[in-house]
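Lab manual, section 2.4: Encoding a predicted structure.

Procedure: take the sequence of the chain (311 residues), apply the prediction step described in section 2.3, and record the output as structure tokens. A sample record is shown.
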Amino acid sequence: MIRRQARLRREYLYRKSIEGKLKTIQEKKDKLKKSLEENVPIHPDLRKTALHLQRKAEWEDAGPELAMAMGTEMGGALGDSKDDEYRWAGVEDPKIVITTSRDPSARLKMFVKELRLIFPNAQRMNRGNYEMKKLIHACRANDVTDFIIVHEHRGVPDTLIICHLPHGPTAYFTMSGVVMRHDIPDIGTMSEEYPHLVFHNFKTKLGMRTMDILKYLFPVPKKESKRVMTFANHDDYIFFRHHTYREEKGKNVEMTEVGPRFLLKLYDIKLGTLDSIAAADTEWALRPYMNTSHKRRFLSDEDGWNQKDDQ
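Recorded output:
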């Protein structure tokens, strides 16, 4: 079983690397073709390989390599690595396990209870003294699709880790501005309907990647569901809000916030799971120098997805 998991993960990472190379080549071809059609100077980065790229662009057929590259651009419609990561999304409901760091405070335990109600089909597990490898192995054996860990600092939740199984990715978010349902008087009970999702201002490749990681934590809702969860990106901070709504006879809609609420900020995406995170490649990471430009927006500006790990 362990050898099979290792082999499948190697195959997945190999396909992921091939897709990245094909996508880079295709982007260069598109830039070159656009320069020739518009009769503008070729970009300096393309001048050395311009003739080679032009020959390939003129003579190649829409074969398997080009189809794979196009499939990456189309969001995985033609069988790219997303088929490995989220192949059952929309077909089978996700199965989620939520836990905490060791020796959690009473406040963190309350927050995890509320998170369990946010994600349908989620189960809360006491961390105890279990090692991470054993937890991930048990989750894989029970067909768990996502493993979520919440960390704290002096009773305040400050980190959210989402590990998609069986191969990854693993996303790390800082968490701030937490307002729990327990802090709101007379809040009432929480509906457990499958919620509708609203994602705002996730425009870049990194934004779409982040949206996929969050979106596939939820099953497909029914049309008559009156529960809405919003993930709104503003300056790379993701605002989470949870509402229910009611339609009145005059076609007015009355919305009620039912909590909890918090802010997330993505700082790392690993191409692996928590049991093998030391050997996993970094798909994206927030670096200190990125904060030098206050106008840069990684989730909503096209300059955001600008790196892979160079280590």
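Check your result against the sample. The chain is about 30% helix and 25% strand.
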